[in-house]
Design brief:
It contains three helices and twelve strands, in the order E-E-E-E-E-E-H-E-E-E-E-E-E-H-H. The longest helix is centred in the C-terminal third of the chain and has 11 residues.
Length: about 170
């Protein structure tokens, strides 16, 4: 099975092993038709003085996939695949600014990912569909916005003008 991250100029690189990760190169997530797609998770500002935040450690443990430090050294990047994913952009954030957490699913976003090769956890590109859904449900659900409900009551109602006219006439 072929998995790709594609360079902006549409040259594709297979991701079967770490040798295919080109240091400090920027790639656009490219969706290949089929049951699998590439997923990138980016956690910003979660590394301080070498210590990884509790939220980031929890996501790293849950995802259990290829994980590396971001180019700044202050964040974490994870790469995996997902299959038969039902990713609803109306339900889930792509970028939860409040948490500094971004989840890029190929075919649902046109974002870019920079890979450094500075790995925390090295492994093959693996399917993490259920783990991804767990992360989406825990951290990326958009708040439900309540819609204003208009009640329609049978019968006719007087206009404002007629109410004011009746009030003035009642002296």
């Amino acid at each position: 099975m072929d998995y790709y991250l594609s360079e902006e100029r549409s040259t594709c690189y297979g991701l079967y092993d770490k040798e295919e990760f080109v240091k400090n190169a920027t790639y656009k997530l490219n969706y290949e038709e089929g049951e699998y797609c590439i997923v990138a998770i980016d956690i910003d500002h979660c590394v301080n003085d070498g210590a990884i935040s509790e939220m980031a450690l929890g996501i790293i443990d849950t995802m259990n996939c290829y994980t590396e430090y971001s180019p700044s050294g202050n964040g974490i990047r994870m790469i995996c695949t997902a299959s038969n994913l039902s990713y609803d952009k109306a339900k889930y954030y792509i970028n939860n600014h409040k948490l500094g957490l971004e989840v890029y699913v190929a075919g649902y976003t046109n974002k870019f990912v920079t890979l450094t090769g500075n790995a925390i956890r090295e492994c093959d590109l693996i399917n993490r569909s259920s783990e991804l859904m767990s992360i989406l449900d825990k951290y990326m659900v958009k708040p439900v916005q309540l819609q204003e409900v208009t009640r329609v009551v049978p019968g006719s109602f007087p206009s404002e003008e007629s109410v004011i006219a009746k009030a003035l006439a009642s002296k």
